[in-house]
Design goal:
The complex is a heterotrimer of chains A (about 525), B (about 100) and C (about 650). Chain A is mainly α and about 525 residues long. Chain A is built from 20 helices and seven strands. In chain A, strand 4 (about 230) and strand 5 form a beta hairpin. Chain A starts with a helix and ends with a helix. Chain B has one domain (about 5-90): Helix Hairpins (Orthogonal Bundle), CATH 1.10.287. Chain B is elongated, with a radius of gyration of 17 Å. Chain C has a two-stranded antiparallel sheet. In chain C, a hairpin with a 2-residue loop joins strand 1 (about 70-80) and strand 2. The chains are: A mainly alpha (about 525), B mainly alpha (about 100), C mainly alpha (about 650).
Chain lengths: ~525, ~100, ~650
């Protein structure tokens, strides 16, 4: 049981999807509860997993099975494995995924159109997301990574809002472009890396752990760190890093590759917005930390300053755009872009604080953005209208809703006591410290990033003022009998999220203890390997 | 005594008329009529040219021969037409296209 | 100081924690109580705060002039560095603990009367409790990160309280501005924290204070932390949120101005005084001086009772910051304490006037702006108690002898006297402006008192006005008593009484009698002048709008910001999406062209060949179409052609 716990966690939803296929399409309740049961089973496996997880033991629950082995004659052997495991980077994200998927399922009760297809796609999406967080073989990762796209595309394109076709195609093409960039590097890496565990024979491996060690590169291969090929301005490794970086940055999303996000969010149904913001964006950050940075530490150092600047641009640009958004969901989407900028900044700092902050930010943003999108969905369910200007003085009409919005807004603003604060302060401390510990970021980058805090306060409070304070008034075709306070199901979704944001803000130690060993090792490894490769190429 | 050319003109006219009838008319009987006309036009020519050599009688002889041939041809032709009509319920050659293509 | 603490640690800790957490408990109780019994919170909250005050009293009694009490827990650990939560209680924080809890208790009980009938009592009292808790957190925290945590929470609770009347649009606007101005300052504070972490790897106050070397980063760090002070303590140039915050309920204003918010800045300044380098201190002093002058002059021209008091707070805070910058944080702290009492008292008295007028208005349906002093006058007869309280606290604010304000101001002036040195420098100017400020303070205070209470009744003449209820009068009385000299020292002319000595860390004894005499006569002169010009108003729109700071912000910050936001929005829509769409359309066009080429060119050639073959075929076939007559025709035709051919 212990050995296959992670696989159980991973494939339970897929199994539930298979079972669901045999139910008649009219059994709506059956699909809902099957999905819910699958989620609860996952939560159960997760608790077992956490129970025997050791913080300082690195990769755990590793499962290693041969998958594809192909003899290519004089080219050697191509080998891909079923290789999964979990460590301080993936653990928080797996916890987040299980939690958010549960909330998203509860939130999906409002879906009434083609319920069978919806829940099956949701279950497939679940496996794909968790799979990409635990896969340690590049090909396996890529498989899960691509597998996320299709259910997501259909979930937006079939259950979305008025401009769903535009949004879903934009989302699909954008992320597909990112995938292609990653695919190119994956092939290059496969050609350049051999499996050291098999001696006397050339075995091209997809193992990410092997790729992260410079000694496993084949001499004079295209990505050999000691003899990297020069292509134009940069050498092949730097190009490969840039391709990977942009591939994941599209997913993150980083300005200027972000415009799919607001459209996708605005058109997606509420539960899908929640998953999109809380989980899908994290795959981008995860990919950077798992693949791009450790495999190319030298290029990471070379481009570190650039990544930090892109992070700051995302923070400020996202904030400014949020300020000018007229649609509540769009505002939240832009605030997501702003917050994911902190993830870039923290990773780029290459300090333990910054990396802890980034991972914590991914976790915390998952919780808080889920809450924000659920709240936006609550309003949309009632009135089919999300324009900020159409509402004012909602506080007097929907007090509990207003309280939840205030909690979510201030949590997202990084108010101390909520998880976002811990994340942001760690990112700032790390980013500022970076320069003094040979990291790539200048102090001014961290200082500029603080502007994002002021912007966050400005757009959230301005929205509060416009929508919730002042005399009660509605515009457009909204009538006041549509406005009623939160119901029980909505409380069931929102309260755990608010409680989690508070808990991880007040008592972050359990989560930080999981992240910390990874972050420390990551920062030391990338700086150490990066410097040594840069000094003696 | 008429000049010889007048007979030749008449013969040419009759031949042409017969030819036009053969080409243009749809009904097979009319086509046979056209053929008769052309044969008679040639008879006319034979007789006329025979006038230029009054010593010989080959012209008249040929004309007689043609008349006999024409009679037998008309008999066989009409018999075929009647058979065809029985078989196809039509005597228009264009509609009898079972062997075409 | 004693080497070992002479108190029972267990009892002490129990008291310290109940002082800190009872307000939080009050917050929780207020939230959890059912809507039906919401009136209960008007009893539970003051009661819990009273307990907290008593506990704070015990703490102060035990720690005063003892070894500082410290206690630290591990909050979380990153890469071997520990981020801690802890308590650090020395004289300054213990004193502040008592002041905050006491004033909060008084404001809570005052609110029970003032806010009676409000539909949102639960939220109001809950947030009062939370506000107090946050402030207490700042006071007892042992490291700057924790201070920052509570610092932000203070901002949050002030947002909720200023915007308490949620249907008032102006209140929401003021709350937002308060929070954003604070956030701007907080960002400075945060940068300070980043500098400290990068260079010292510690936020602990004790650790930081023991590293005595004066390094250049300390200047930067201290100035950044001072940014936080500027935001929270409403210093120039981030002061305009404080007058706007008057849109909140009056007891909240009392709390903000006396104990829980603006005080935090000055307190922090005293707490991290060791970080400040001489250059940073000069900057602090200059900022304080500018603020004091601006506030005092702006107060002269205001017509709203609460705004006069707000600008006076700004001016007094500037005075405290000036003192801290002049190397006398103990004088600043002393003034902070005395100011807390008399300013709370003034606000509560002003609240009593407003409350009484509102109630009278509600009965008579006679609308006028009850806060505008131009409508008021002669209330002395109808509100004698409030008048008396106003006189006492106003005198303390003006710094008249026998009142606490006189002594604390004396302490500041004395330290300025020493600081300015003997040779003439720019510091003399600041010393001189301190006197200008103290003169102006008397003028605006007594202008307020005279126009509200003396002279003829104006709009209020026909109203039957009654004194506020007992629950409001008791807190006012307590605070009025606390505005007397006795809380500072037994000798009404010597500030070095029981508090000052405990606040002083290492500076020498500073009492200068010449300053006391000069100050006293100067204030009396000002009083006489105020009497001479009573009833006159200064009509200066520049002063009324506080030097147009708000408009300047609108033009310089707000408008460009929104324009920038518009530009980014357009960039997103037009540029980035435009490039995308262009790329998509370009692809479509290329695809269409390729499709056309495929159809017209490549398929076209094939098709044309086929069409040609078919045409030729059908043409030649037409000769043998199975039509006998046609055959004959062609045969004849060919013969004719042949004949013509041979003939020609």
């Amino acid at each position: 049981m212990q050995e296959i716990l992670l696989s159980l966690l991973l494939f339970t939803p897929l199994l539930a999807a298979l079972v669901s296929l045999f139910f008649p399409a009219t059994a709506i309740q059956l699909f809902r509860y099957t999905t819910l049961v699958a989620n609860i089973a996952q939560a159960f496996f997760l608790i077992l997993l956490l129970g025997s997880y050791q913080n300082s033991a690195g990769l755990q629950f590793v499962e290693h099975q041969p998958w594809i082995t192909m003899d290519l004659g004089s080219w050697g052997t191509l080998k891909a494995e079923y290789f999964i495991g979990i460590d301080g980077l993936s653990m928080p994200l797996v916890v987040l995924s299980v939690f958010i998927m549960l909330i998203a399922t509860i939130s999906s009760w409002t879906i009434l159109k083609n319920v069978k297809g919806y829940f099956i796609l949701l279950l497939i999406l679940n496996t794909a997301i968790i799979g990409s967080f635990v896969a340690l073989d590049f090909l396996l990762f890529y498989l899960f990574f691509e597998f996320m796209l299709l259910p997501m595309f259909f979930l937006i394109a079939l259950w979305g809002g008025p401009r769903k076709e535009y949004a879903s195609i934009k989302f699909f093409l954008y992320t597909l472009l990112g995938s292609i960039l990653i695919l190119i590097v994956m092939i290059g890496l496969n050609l350049s890396v051999h499996d050291p565990s098999i001696s006397g024979q050339l075995v091209h491996s997809f193992n990410i752990i092997h790729m992260s060690s410079p000694i496993n590169f084949i001499s004079f291969s295209i990505l050999d760190p000691h003899n990297a090929w020069q292509i134009g301005l940069y050498n092949a490794r730097q190009w490969a890093f840039l391709l990977l970086f942009f591939g994941f940055a599209i997913k993150l999303p980083m300005v200027p590759f972000h415009t799919w996000l607001p459209d996708a969010h605005v058109e997606a149904p509420t539960p899908i917005s929640v998953i999109l913001a809380a989980l899908l964006l994290k795959v981008g950050g995860y990919g950077l930390a798992r693949i791009a940075f450790p495999i190319f530490p030298d290029a990471t150092i070379y481009f570190g300053g650039f990544i930090g600047v892109m992070g700051v641009i995302s923070i400020i640009y996202g904030g400014l755009n949020a300020l000018s958004s007229k649609d509540l969901k769009r505002l939240i989407a832009y605030s997501s872009i702003s917050h994911m900028g902190f993830v870039l900044l923290g990773f780029a700092s290459l300090t333990a604080e910054g990396v802890v902050g980034s991972i914590y930010q991914m976790f915390s943003h998952g919780i808080i953005s889920a809450m924000l999108f659920l709240l936006a969905g609550v309003l949309y369910d009632r009135t089919n209208n999300r324009m900020i200007a159409n509402y004012s003085g909602l506080y007097s009409k929907m007090p509990w809703y207003a309280v939840m919005i205030i909690v979510a807004f201030f949590a997202s603003m990084g108010l101390p006591g909520f998880s976002g604060f811990i994340a942001e302060i760690m990112v700032f401390l790390g980013a500022f410290k970076s320069n003094s510990v040979q990291g790539p970021l200048h102090e001014s980058i961290a200082i500029t990033a603080t502007l994002g805090l002021v912007l966050a306060a400005a757009y959230y409070l301005w929205t509060l003022q416009r929508m919730f304070f002042g005399p009660f008034n509605l515009k457009g075709d909204i009538t006041s009998d549509q406005m009623f306070d939160l119901n029980k199901r909505e409380f069931i979704m929102l309260i755990p999220l608010a409680a989690a944001a508070l808990f991880f803000g007040i008592y972050p130690q359990p989560m930080i203890a999981i992240i910390d060993p990874f972050a420390k090792h990551f920062a030391e490894f990338v700086i150490g390997a990066g410097k040594s490769l840069t000094l003696n190429p | 005594m008429f000049p010889i050319a007048h007979f030749l003109y008449l013969g040419a006219f009759l031949f042409s008329a017969g030819l036009v009838i053969v080409i243009v008319k749809k009904n097979m009987i009319m086509v046979l009529l056209g053929i008769e006309l052309m044969l008679n036009a040639s008879n006319l020519n034979l007789v006329t040219f025979n006038q230029l050599y009054p010593d010989s009688i080959q012209g008249q002889m040929f004309a007689l021969f043609v008349i006999i041939v024409a009679v037998s041809e008309a008999a066989v032709g009409l018999a075929i037409v009647i058979k065809v009509y029985h078989y196809y319920q039509t005597s228009v050659p264009d509609e009898i296209n079972e062997l075409k293509d | 100081m004693a080497a070992t603490p002479s108190y029972d640690t267990a009892v002490f800790m129990a008291c310290a924690f109940s002082a800190l957490f009872l307000p939080l408990f009050s917050f929780a109780v207020s939230l959890l109580i059912s809507e039906k019994y919401s009136w209960l919170v008007t009893f539970t909250s003051p009661f819990l705060l009273l307990l907290s005050t008593l506990a704070a009293g015990v703490v102060l009694y035990s720690t005063w002039n003892q070894q500082p009490f410290t206690m630290t827990w591990n909050w979380f650990t990153v890469a071997g560095s520990t981020f801690a939560v802890g308590v650090f209680l020395n004289n300054i924080s213990a004193l502040m603990l008592l002041v905050v809890t006491l004033i909060s208790f008084l404001v809570n009980s005052y609110s029970a009367g003032y806010m009676a009938g409000d539909p949102d009592l639960k939220r109001y009292f809950g947030m009062l409790g939370f506000f107090t808790f946050s402030m207490l957190g700042i006071v007892i925290a042992d490291n700057l990160l924790l201070v920052f945590v509570f610092w932000e929470l203070v901002g949050f609770s002030s947002f909720m309280l200023i915007g308490h009347w949620k249907e008032k649009s102006k209140a929401a606007d003021a709350a937002k501005r308060a929070f954003i101005f604070n956030r701007v300052g907080d960002v400075g504070f945060l940068i300070g924290l980043m500098i400290l972490w990068a260079h010292a790897e510690s936020f602990n106050l004790i650790t930081l204070s023991t590293s005595s070397e004066a390094l250049s980063w300390k200047t930067a760090a201290s100035l950044c932390i001072f940014c936080g002070v500027i935001g929270k303590s409403a210093q120039f140039p981030l002061f305009s949120w404080l007058p706007d915050a008057m849109e909140g309920p009056t007891p909240v204003s009392a709390l903000i101005h006396a104990a829980t918010m603006v005080a935090a800045g000055v307190f922090l300044l005293a707490r991290v005084y060791f970080l400040f380098t001489p250059f940073a201190l000069d900057f602090v002093a200059l900022t304080g001086c500018i603020t004091a002058l601006l506030g005092a002059f702006a107060a002269l021209a205001q017509n709203d009772i609460k705004k006069i008091l707000a600008y006076s707070t700004i001016s007094q805070l500037g005075f405290m910051v000036l003192a801290a910058g002049a190397g006398a944080p103990e004088a600043a702290m002393l003034h902070l304490v005395t100011h807390a009492f008399f300013k709370a008292c003034l606000f509560l008295a002003a609240g009593a006037v407003i409350h009484a007028l509102h109630q009278a208005q509600n009965q008579s349906h006679f609308p006028f702006d009850a806060q505008d002093i131009r409508h008021l006058g002669g209330l002395r007869k109808k509100l004698p108690f409030t008048f008396f309280v106003f006189i006492v606290s106003g005198s303390a604010l003006s710094g008249l002898p026998f009142f606490s304000g006189f002594l604390s101001k004396d302490a500041i002036l004395a330290s300025l006297m020493v600081w300015k040195g003997t040779g003439f420098s720019w510091r003399w100017l600041i010393f001189g402006s301190a006197f200008v400020v103290s003169f102006t303070t008397v003028l605006y205070t007594f202008r307020l008192i005279w126009s509200v209470f003396q002279g003829e009744e104006k709009s209020t003449a026909h109203l039957s006005i009654t004194e506020p209820p007992l629950s409001m009068r008791v807190p006012m009385t307590v605070l009025a008593i606390a505005s007397l000299w006795i809380i500072v020292s037994p000798n009404p002319f010597d500030f070095s009484g029981w508090i000052y000595g405990g606040l002083r860390s290492n500076s020498e004894y500073l009492h200068i009698s010449a300053i006391s005499i000069a100050s006293a006569s100067w204030v009396l002169l000002a009083l006489a002048f105020a009497y001479l010009i009573k009833g006159r108003t200064i009509r200066s729109s520049m002063l009324l709008n506080a030097f147009y700071v708000n408009s300047i912000y609108k033009i310089v910050v707000e408008r460009p910001l929104f324009q920038l936001a518009e530009i980014t929005a357009r960039t997103d829509k037009k540029l980035i999406d435009g490039i995308l769409h262009t790329a998509a359309y370009a692809q479509l066009i290329i695809a269409n062209v390729a499709g056309w080429f495929d159809r017209a060119m490549i398929d076209g050639v094939v098709d044309d060949a086929a069409i040609l073959a078919k045409g030729v075929g059908s043409f030649t076939r037409s000769f043998q179409g199975g039509k006998i007559q046609l055959y004959i025709f062609w045969a004849i035709f060919a013969v004719i052609i042949f004949i013509i051919w041979t003939l020609l």
